[in-house]
Write a structure and sequence with these properties.
single chain; 290 residues; alpha/beta; five-stranded parallel beta sheet; two-stranded antiparallel sheet; 7 strands
Length: 290
């Protein structure tokens, strides 16, 4: 491992060095992913804010694309974060409606090959943000995907951290991430957009795998998840963004709540609603079965 907790002084020095190394790797990865027609999928959380900050330093004209239901957490947070970053004039907000979600269900289920509610909820988010990017002329979209699996961003990691199994859990999730990446890319292609993921470039992955679990989750008045990523962001992002809590896109946008209400209106679960929607409309839509 790169970091060993020998004493307080060496710990602080080592943390600083690793944070700088990580920031350098992220900067290099963003540079590799940049394209003349790039944009950033932007929710205003630490991952997308860090990608946006680095990308904007390379191309001040880069667009930031945020989606969600009217009044949703992600729409408000994106506006707030873009303002804090001095990029509000680069932010494009695309509001979703229940009708938009209903019309997108079949293509998203077909592209993802799934009727799983979480997979479809995530797919819908990607469908709308890639559509927003395409609308404003971006054909390549940078996302922060992979940061949670590399640096322990999910709440469920806290228990395995206490049990000493965080590294194994993260490695399993990284292996499973491949399928999610493929599904997201397939959805974005529906709008003619290519996804690029700087956090999943080899330089970032290789360094992340060497970083000790104690730098990914820190016990300090509770748990600080993605601790080293937050340290790397310090001095680059406003503290309010560097310390922003995790909120999954399908919930932060309000899209999952719309699916839940649609299912409840039919008196079924979300999974049943999606399966029934697919069955009712598959033949007339022209999509083949998956």
């Amino acid at each position: 491992m790169v970091w060993h907790n020998d004493n307080h002084g060496s710990e602080t020095e080592s943390e600083t060095k690793i944070a700088q190394m990580l920031m350098d790797r992220i900067r290099d990865s963003v540079r590799l992913c940049m394209h003349d027609c790039s944009g950033v999928a932007f929710s205003g959380g630490i991952d997308s804010s860090l990608i946006a900050f680095v990308a904007a330093s390379m191309n001040p004209e880069i667009g930031l694309y945020a989606i969600g239901m009217r009044g949703s957490h992600d729409m408000k947070q994106a506006e707030k974060a873009a303002t804090l970053l001095g990029l509000h004039d680069r932010l494009h907000l695309c509001e979703c409606t229940p009708e938009d979600i209903k019309s997108a269900l079949l293509p998203v289920m077909h592209a993802t090959g799934s009727t799983n509610p979480v997979a479809v909820g995530i797919g819908l988010c990607m469908y709308f943000v890639s559509g927003c990017a395409s609308k404003y002329g971006a054909s390549v979209l940078l996302t922060g995907q992979g940061a949670d699996e590399l640096f322990a961003g999910y709440k469920r990691y806290e228990q395995v951290f206490d049990d000493g199994g965080l590294d194994r859990e993260l490695e399993r999730d990284m292996l499973a991430l491949h399928d999610q990446v493929e599904r997201d890319a397939a959805v974005a292609r529906l709008n003619g957009v290519e996804l690029r993921m700087p956090m999943l470039c080899s330089g970032v992955i290789d360094l992340a795998r060497e970083i000790d679990a104690g730098l990914k989750i820190r016990r300090q008045d509770g748990y600080i998840r993605k601790y080293i990523l937050r340290r790397a962001s310090a001095g680059h992002l406003p503290a309010e963004l560097a310390q922003a809590p995790k909120k999954a896109a399908q919930y932060g946008t309000g899209i999952q709540n719309v699916l839940r209400r649609m299912a409840r209106r039919d008196g079924v679960t979300q999974g049943e609603f999606l399966a029934q929607t697919r069955s009712r409309n598959l033949r007339q839509s022209g999509f083949s079965a998956f």
